[in-house]
Amino acid sequence: MANTDYKSTDALMRHLRDNGIAISGSSQKQQLINTGYFHGYKGYRFFVSSSNQLPFTSYNEINATIQYDTKLKSLLYGKIMFIETALKNIALNTIMTEISSNSIYDMYDKVISSYKNAPSSTPNDVKKRYQNNKLNLQGSIQNSIAAAYRKDNPKISHFYNNVNYNEVPIWAIFEILTMGDFGYLLSCLTMSMREKISRVIGINLSSDTYRELVYKYVYTLKDLRNAIAHNDVVYDTRFRKIEPSRPMKQCLILEIGLPYINFKTIGDYIILICYYLKLLKVSKTERKAFIREFEKITQEYKNLVNTNVSAVTIHPDLTSRMAILKNSL
Q1: Helix, strand, coil content of the chain in percent (nearest 5)
Q2: Which of 48, 50, 58, 232 has the CB geometry, 3.0–4.6 Å to 227, for a possible disulfide?
Q3: In Å, how far from its chain's centre is CA 124?
Q4: 46, β-bridge pairs
Q5: To 10 degrees, the CA torsion angle through 309, 313, 314, 315?
Q6: Domain ranges of the chain
Q7: Is the distance from CB of 17 to CB of 59 less than 8 angstroms?
Q8: What's residue 3's pLDDT?
Q9: pLDDT digits (tens, 9 = 90+) for 148-196
């Protein structure tokens, strides 16, 4: 049976015009081809959810939105990779110092929460949860090692193909952990170990009673990182999976001087990234340049779309929040 849903590029352009989107000419046709009708128009025609369609009137506005999103990804990805690498190295060094070893088994025994090492006052069901999390962590790490060896990743195969080595050291394992796996490992550490890592990083712990920020912020950035890596839409934070806890909000409110934080806008992710850049001793000059570039591409985008679109896509208090952020640098 013929596929009656298929439309040529010209037919898609007519379809867009029939739906109130001005599009014509070879230039816009090529834009539609390059960005794709499904990835481009259908992916960017709404804000956050498909029920919130944007009032575009021309394909120029759609293309401007796509280009804004692309520029954001380019701006953010390098910073997130830097933060991920730095946090992994800080955690790794702090763990190895604590256990005086580079053995993964020493890490499991000494600083991963389990039934055996839980405080005596811990309820039995919580002890079991710790143990289950530890077993899940061990399984996840073994799967990562097996996958790396199967792909002949030299960071792992070097140790298995050498008769002088008995196990893969922690530092090699950290090299192959995804950001999500790294966050899970942090969540499985004992609270005292999480506190030590948090203090080395410099996280404000005044509202973090259970020392959870060290991994919850990693999970928060992981969602953004994955969206960028998979070329998903990021500017409207539809990738957001985590509901920020009170400590996650309070830490940034105290540190930056914000009236609120909710991670429902891309500006809040800019704020979190800047917070980490400051903790990791990135120069004030570089941090200011990062914020300026974000403001620049946002203003350029705002100038290219009608006010009904920008009123939805750019949060009304973004400018004031960026001003507060710059004052906190």
Answers
A1: 65, 0, 30
A2: 232
A3: 34
A4: 53
A5: 110
A6: 62-328
A7: no
A8: 55
A9: 999 999 999 999 998 888 899 999 999 999 999 999 999 999 999 999 9
